[in-house]
Design brief:
The chain is mainly alpha-helical. The chain has 17 helices and no strands. The longest helix is centred in the C-terminal third of the chain and has 31 residues.
Length: 385
Amino acid sequence: MFLREKLEELERTNLAPYAARASESRGRVHAVRPDLLRPDFQRDRDRVIHSTAFRKLEFKTQVFVTHASDFNRSRLTHTMEVAQIARTLAKALNLNADLAEAIALAHDVGHTPFGHAGEDAMRLCMKDHGGFEHNLQGLRVVERLEERYPDFPGLNLTYETREGIIKHHTEYDAPKPHPDYNPGKSPSLESQAVDLADEIAYNNADLDDALEMGMIVVGDLRAVDWVREVFDEIGAELGPKAEPRALKYRALAKMYDLHVHDALRESAARIEASGVGSIDDVYDHQGRLVSFSPEFGARIASMQKFMLERVYLHPRNMVYTNKARKFVRELFEHYVENPRQLPWKHQEFAEREGLHQAVCDYIQGMTDRFLMQQYRDAFLPDVMN
C-alpha cells in the first residue's frame, strides 16, 4: 500500500485544509478495490472520459448548432475548456484539481441535443411528468443510464463528484436541492470553481464563435465599454497592420486572463475572510466563496446583455433554435404515441419508470445528428434507409 499512502501524504501536504480530499471521500455506492496509482477523484475523471455520454458531447450543440460551422464549439470542446479553467482555478487556490476536473468533465452529460433550445423543449414535454433539469438528468446518467459494469448501473462515481454535478450552478443553471446531496449546504469549493469556470468559458467562447461566424463584427463590441477597451489596447500593441484574426485571438486571451485573475483575487480574499478551516466549514458557509468581484460581475453582466441581444437572439440563430424545439417536441410526442419504436432497453425503462421518463432518457442521450436522422425516419416514411 506504499503508493496509496504516498498519494494521501501528497494530499495532506499540498492541499488547503478546506479542500476536498480523496482519502476522506464519502465513497461510492458500490464498493470497489482501491487503485494504487490513482486517487479516487482522478479515477472518477477517467470513468467520465471513457463514458458513452461524454463521447456523445462531440456532436451536441453548445450554443450554435454543430453543423452550422466547422469552427464553433460543440458541447464536448466547451466541456474541455471548462475542465482546463477549473483545474487552473483549483490549483491556484490549493484545492483538489482532480475533483474539479471530474465535476467539470461530467457537468454537461445531462444536456439534450441542440443545447438550451432542446432543453427548453424537453422541459415542456416533461412538464406534467416530473419535469426536466439537466443537472438532475446528468446525475441520472452517471448513476443509472451508463452501462459499464456487470454488477451495477452507472459509473459508480464518488459522492463528492456526484454532489458537484447536481449542485452545478451558473447564471443559466439553478438546480433544485436534492435530498441525497446535502440540501441547504453549500457545494465544495471545487464545485464552485467549476461553476465559475463554466461562466468564463462560455462568456469568451461564445463571443469568439459569434465573431468567427460573422454574426457580429469587432466594431459591434463598442457597445460594451470594457470589451472595446480590451480590443483597443491590443490593437494599439499590434499596430494598424495587424491581421484581424491575430487581434481577435490576442484580445480574447486578454479577456480570459481578466476573468481568471479577478476570480482568483476575489476568491482568495473571500476564503480568507470567511475563516473556513475544513470542508465541513465550506459546506456550512452560506454564500459563494469562489466568485468574481462585484465590479467584474457588473462587467460580465453588460457583456451578457450584449450577447443576448446581438447573438443569442440573432435571426440566424433563432431559425435553428425554433427548428430544434420543433424536432425535440415532435419526436418526443411521436415516441409517446409509438412506444414500440423505442429501443428494447428504453421499453424496459418505460415499464419500470414510466413511458415519458423513458422517452426523455432516450432523446436526451441522442446527438444532434442522430436526432435529426430519427426525425426523418419518423416523419418521412416514404424514405427508406
